[in-house]
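Researcher: Sequence recovery benchmark, item below. Answer with residues only.
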């Protein structure tokens, strides 16, 4: 039987640093119900004015182009990764959020690495994402993962806020 297309398995088992195991599982309504409000309450989404309802809707439904995965740490929901593929000669990271109590365990880096591996499997040349200019921790995190600034998109999501479009070359 042919392997599922990139980003189209229902779940992926990954290993983060220090042997921390995580599982990505296609998100469902219960995941969105729990994660939406928690993500809306933290930066960058709080400052950008994203409501719980908006965050829930962004997580709840996958389709052929938008793949929403809940990041599970053991039996706990630790965050979410949403990828649009295909996008611009490679996938676009629509959303990456690790809940504060699960941050700094290597889950974010492992989930991002998974996106890049799937992109390579799809034959993509690039990965893309946007990070709010005020979100200095996430910006540094992406720089450390090999992403470079491609452009700044002013007022893209909220008036007065800049979003940095970043690109990683895969070849
Ligand atoms: C940014 C984010 C995705 C990183 O995920 P994570 O699981 O916490 O990160 P990891 O444990 O994989 O760490 C990756 C690196 O980021 C750095 N980092 C992560 N969180 C940090 C923090 N709060 N303060 C300082 N550095 C931090 C670490 O230095 C780490 O480097 P190392 O691997 O060399 O130790 C996560 O902190 C998060 O979801 N933040 C809130 C939402 C957000 O900003 N999302 C991105 C929107 S574009």
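Model:
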């Amino acid at each position: 039987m042919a392997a599922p297309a990139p980003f189209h398995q229902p779940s992926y088992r990954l290993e983060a640093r220090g042997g921390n195991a995580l599982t990505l599982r296609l998100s469902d309504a219960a995941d969105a119900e729990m994660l939406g409000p928690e993500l809306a309450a933290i930066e960058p989404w709080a400052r950008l004015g994203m409501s719980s309802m908006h965050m829930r809707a962004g997580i709840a439904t996958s389709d052929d182009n938008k793949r929403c995965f809940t990041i599970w740490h053991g039996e706990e929901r630790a965050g979410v990764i949403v990828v649009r593929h295909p996008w611009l000669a490679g996938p676009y990271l629509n959303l990456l959020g690790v809940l504060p109590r699960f941050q700094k365990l290597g889950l974010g880096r492992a989930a991002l690495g998974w996106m890049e591996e799937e992109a390579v499997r799809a034959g993509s040349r690039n990965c893309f994402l946007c990070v709010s200019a005020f979100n200095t921790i996430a910006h540094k995190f992406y720089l450390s993962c090999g992403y470079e600034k491609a452009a700044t998109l002013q007022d893209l999501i909220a008036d007065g806020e800049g979003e940095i479009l970043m690109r990683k070359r895969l070849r």
